[in-house]
């Protein structure tokens, strides 16, 4: 069965196509992405109206390229992200998905973007056992419990303020490293000392929620540190600040993920979302998983950032799990809860 997925929740227009075999195996046939990231750079963050317009321009050509790459005329099902995400951006993908599903006379599946970030790992590492998943991107930070990709996902915790990737972007801006700041900050940190400055570890006290995150405190601490340097007329030690900040974020993320694995007696941790490209988050997760005897699964970076094939892959698991299709009147759900995988 050929399953097509459309993604337009943020600044990437993605169309992916997978083949769902009778035994449940999912294979990638196409993964086409058009990004408007450069159009947002001068604003220092994603501008919703700019993103919506870019989706409108990109959706049909991206769809054409994906079908050409996969060598298919029409799929057997169309899947689309209906949330969470930017309302206007989601509308473009959902409207297109409805039009294609109606024109091709195939079922439509309305899916959760966050579930896609977890499901995409099966393309790379095969069937997924019950696991803990840590999603870190520009818009999201979630610690999840996944029993079965065809069923609703359980949320253990999330951020109470900034997303981890958002914190990377904001701190990179404080350090004049450009946008998106995550990759630049990662590179700057390579020459720094991660123990140079003791930045706070948000929400790791004994009375804090076990699985929730907070990154606004460390961001403010960086801002204060930079201000102090400027006021004193000292140069800002950019590499040391970047490395120490990155160490704090990686420490908290992996500490809570390992805690969840231990509490739930789960021996697999899956990482997803664009910020898992971060070298220190990866290496610390590797070190801590190895020490705890937990198998770590991280899809290649291309699959960690937003794309359409993650939606096609989640769709394949949802279809295999027997969820009925959505109706053509299904709405977008910008604040969609991760506990809902699909609207049947
Ligand atoms: P969503 O939140 O909906 O998934 P997004 O576009 O914000 O969408 P992604 O495209 O998955 O998220 O990832 C982009 C984010 O990842 C940005 O915040 C970026 O700074 C961050 N990022 C990318 N590479 C790195 C890196 N090496 N280190 C730290 N952060 C990174
Ligand atoms: Mg993005
Ligand atoms: Fe995403």
Automatic annotation (TrEMBL):
Acyltransferase listed as a keyword: yes
Domain of life according to the entry: Bacteria
Catalyses which reaction(s): L-threonylcarbamoyladenylate + adenosine(37) in tRNA = N(6)-L-threonylcarbamoyladenosine(37) in tRNA + AMP + H(+)
Cytoplasm among keywords: yes
UniProt keyword annotations, A-Z: Acyltransferase, Cytoplasm, Iron, Metal-binding, Transferase, tRNA processing
Binding residues for substrate: 135-139, 169, 182, 186, 278
Subcellular locations according to the entry: Cytoplasm
Residues annotated as transmembrane: none
A Pfam family matched in the record: TsaD
Domain called Gcp-like: residue spans: 28-312
Chain residues that bind Fe cation: 113, 117, 306
Main location: cytoplasm
Database matches in Gene3D superfamilies: 3.30.420.40
Cofactors (names): Fe(2+)
InterPro entries referenced in this protein's UniProt entry, alphabetically: ATPase_NBD, Gcp-like_dom, KAE1/TsaD, Peptidase_M22_CS, TsaD
The enzyme's E.C. designation: 2.3.1.234
Comment on bound cofactor: Binds 1 Fe(2+) ion per subunit.
Function description: Required for the formation of a threonylcarbamoyl group on adenosine at position 37 (t(6)A37) in tRNAs that read codons beginning with adenine. Is involved in the transfer of the threonylcarbamoyl moiety of threonylcarbamoyl-AMP (TC-AMP) to the N6 group of A37, together with TsaE and TsaB. TsaD likely plays a direct catalytic role in this reaction.
Family under the similarity heading: Belongs to the KAE1 / TsaD family.
Name assigned to this protein: tRNA N6-adenosine threonylcarbamoyltransferase
Species for this entry: Williamsia serinedens
């Amino acid at each position: 069965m050929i399953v097509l997925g459309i993604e337009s929740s943020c600044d990437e227009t993605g169309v992916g196509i997978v083949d769902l075999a009778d035994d449940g195996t999912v294979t990638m046939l196409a993964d086409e992405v058009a990004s408007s990231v450069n159009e947002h750079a001068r604003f220092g963050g994603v501008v919703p109206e700019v993103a919506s317009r870019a989706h409108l321009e990109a959706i049909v050509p991206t769809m054409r390229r994906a079908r050409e790459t996969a060598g298919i005329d029409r799929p057997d099902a169309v899947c689309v992200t209906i949330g969470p995400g930017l309302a206007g951006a989601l509308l473009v993908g959902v409207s297109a998905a409805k039009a294609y599903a109606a024109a091709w006379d195939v079922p439509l599946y309305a899916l959760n973007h966050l579930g896609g970030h977890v499901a995409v790992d099966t393309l790379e590492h095969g069937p997924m056992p019950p696991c803990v998943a840590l999603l870190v991107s520009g818009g999201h930070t979630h610690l999840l419990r996944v029993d079965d990709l065809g069923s609703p996902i359980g949320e253990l915790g999330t951020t109470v303020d900034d997303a981890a990737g958002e914190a990377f972007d904001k701190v990179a801006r404080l350090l004049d490293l450009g946008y998106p700041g995550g990759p630049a900050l990662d590179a700057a940190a390579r020459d720094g000392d991660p123990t140079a400055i003791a930045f706070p570890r948000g929400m790791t006290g004994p009375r804090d929620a076990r699985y929730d995150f907070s990154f606004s405190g460390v961001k403010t601490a960086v801002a204060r540190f930079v201000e102090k340097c400027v006021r004193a007329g000292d140069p800002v030690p950019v590499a040391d600040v970047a490395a120490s900040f990155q160490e704090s974020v990686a420490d908290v993320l992996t500490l809570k993920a390992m805690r969840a694995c231990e509490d739930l007696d789960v021996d697999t941790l899956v990482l997803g979302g664009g910020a898992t490209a971060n070298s220190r988050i990866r290496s610390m997760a590797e070190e801590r998983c190895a020490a705890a005897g937990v198998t770590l699964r991280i899809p290649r970076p291309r699959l960690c950032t937003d794309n359409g094939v993650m939606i096609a892959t989640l769709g394949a698991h949802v279809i295999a799990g027997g969820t009925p299709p959505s109706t053509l009147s299904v709405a977008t759900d910008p604040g969609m809860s991760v506990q809902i995988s699909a609207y049947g």
